[in-house]
């Protein structure tokens, strides 16, 4: 019989709390001279580091334009605006709300469709079924960094004359058939916040091969100013400061190593946890690499013996922080209650996955002992699942 878990009175596997995420950042010395320079010159925004960062990003992603903005959320909003999305846009519900809210900001009605049960990405067959004469576009997500079915979606968009945007918030570090995601659809929009593999503090990148869209984003991030203090459309202030560009430049140099390292850590964890009944992970299509911005596990109570929430509570007692990312799914948010009728019974996979998926701690510099500790904690919780369930039910 293995050790009892902490929730049954044993010492926690981790003495100190293991956070869900830890950004892998450069040491201060690596950016000190540039930070010193912007402080002494006063060039805090719209400077040379932004230009250099955009150049390097475009080169890395293999796209004509990489336009930096202050967040992925605003990058999406300005992209939806620039592509003149209207009427209905098809979008997954099993995503973070920031994929969808910007659609509402530009006056579009989201039409939620289901995900694939294995990849947890938007299901192209469901996309095709949801197209109506009012549909103007499709928004897909590389969920948790798992590349979406980009070519199938491009084909659907082309055949129906629709715009196609990828919410690539989790996308840095993801490879589609060996190449970075970023050049698919009309645009791909990345996030550079601290939970991502490429970190600029806060920030976003709109990657596109469409010259007109890139020009739109450049003007839109400057209030819509046409250069003569007039405007042709309402923009916002969505600029990326120089400090963020400096940090992003250094982070980009570290990206490939971090993505590789993170994949090795995940491989170690997955191989061990996949042996336990009732735990499943995202399927990554052959030839692709997931960024593993998050490492989420699907907990099937009928085989594992505990629900997702019970496992989360037991891990909490082991000092392991977890998150229930994408639960509740976006179509159930109050913001979208007026659309509820339309989606009742239409998203069975989303409704199965969302209450069962649990994101475990993962970061690029996680050492093997930490990874093994997470696995060990889950194994001992599984080994005592009946007692854990009884203890949790008694304490309710
Ligand atoms: C899928 C998805 N889209 C958009 C965003 C918004 O990114 P940002 O915080 O840079 O606005 C996030 C944030 O993590 C996200 O997970």
Question: Would you give an account of this structure?
Answer:
Helices cover 39% and strands 14% of the residues. Strand 4 (135-141), helix 6 and strand 5 form a beta-alpha-beta unit. The strands form 3 sheets. Strands 1-9-8-5-4-2-3 form a 7-stranded mixed sheet, sandwiched between helices. It is of the alpha/beta class. The protein is built from 14 helices and 12 strands. It binds pyridoxal-5'-phosphate. Pyridoxal-5'-phosphate (PLP) binds next to helix 3.
Output the keywords.
about 400 residues; Aspartate Aminotransferase, domain 2; 7-stranded mixed β-sheet; 3-stranded antiparallel β-sheet; 12 strands; about 40% helix; about 15% strand; binds pyridoxal-5'-phosphate
Low-pLDDT segments, ≥5 res: none
Structural class: alpha/beta
CATH topology: Aspartate Aminotransferase, domain 2
| Overall mean pLDDT | 97
Major sheet description: 7 strands, mixed
Query: Which CATH top level class fits?
Result: Alpha Beta
Structural Rg? 22 Å
Number of strands: 12
Strand content: 5-15%
Architecture, CATH level 2? 3-Layer(aba) Sandwich
């Amino acid at each position: 019989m293995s050790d009892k878990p902490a929730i049954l009175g044993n010492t926690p596997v981790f003495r100190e709390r293991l956070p869900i995420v830890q950004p892998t950042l450069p040491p201060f010395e690596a950016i000190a001279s540039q930070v010193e320079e912007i402080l002494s010159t006063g060039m805090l925004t719209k400077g040379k580091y932004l230009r250099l960062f955009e150049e390097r990003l475009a080169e890395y992603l293999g796209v004509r334009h990489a336009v930096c903005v202050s967040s992925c959320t605003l990058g999406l909003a300005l992209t939806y605006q620039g592509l003149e999305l209207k009427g209905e846009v098809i979008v997954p519900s099993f995503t973070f709300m920031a994929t969808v809210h910007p659609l509402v900001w530009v006056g579009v009605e989201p039409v939620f469709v289901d995900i694939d049960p294995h990849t947890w990405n938007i299901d192209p067959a469901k996309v095709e079924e949801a197209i109506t004469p009012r549909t103007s576009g499709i928004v897909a997500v590389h969920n948790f960094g798992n590349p979406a079915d980009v070519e199938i979606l491009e084909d659907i968009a082309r055949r129906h004359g629709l715009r196609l945007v990828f919410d690539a918030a989790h996308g840095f570090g993801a490879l589609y058939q060996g190449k970075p995601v970023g050049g698919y659809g009309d645009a791909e929009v990345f996030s550079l916040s601290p939970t991502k593999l490429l970190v600029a503090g806060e920030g976003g990148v709109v990657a596109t091969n469409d010259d007109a869209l890139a020009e739109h984003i450049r003007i839109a991030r400057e209030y819509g100013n046409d250069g003569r203090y007039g405007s042709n459309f309402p923009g916002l202030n969505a600029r990326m400061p120089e400090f963020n560009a400096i940090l992003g430049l250094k982070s980009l140099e570290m990206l490939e190593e971090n993505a590789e390292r993170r994949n090795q850590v995940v491989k170690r964890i997955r191989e061990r946890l996949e042996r336990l009944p009732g735990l499943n992970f995202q399927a990554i299509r052959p030839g692709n690499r997931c960024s593993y911005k998050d490492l989420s596990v699907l907990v099937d109570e009928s085989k594992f013996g505990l629900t997702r929430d019970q496992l989360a509570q037991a891990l909490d007692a082991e000092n392991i922080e977890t998150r229930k990312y994408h639960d509740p799914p976006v179509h159930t948010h109050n913001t979208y209650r007026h659309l509820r009728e339309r989606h009742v019974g239409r998203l069975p996979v989303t409704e199965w996955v969302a209450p069962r998926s649990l994101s475990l701690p993962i970061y690029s510099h996680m050492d093997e002992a930490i990874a093994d500790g997470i696995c060990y904690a889950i194994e001992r919780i599984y080994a005592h699942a009946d007692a854990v369930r009884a203890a949790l039910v008694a304490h309710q």
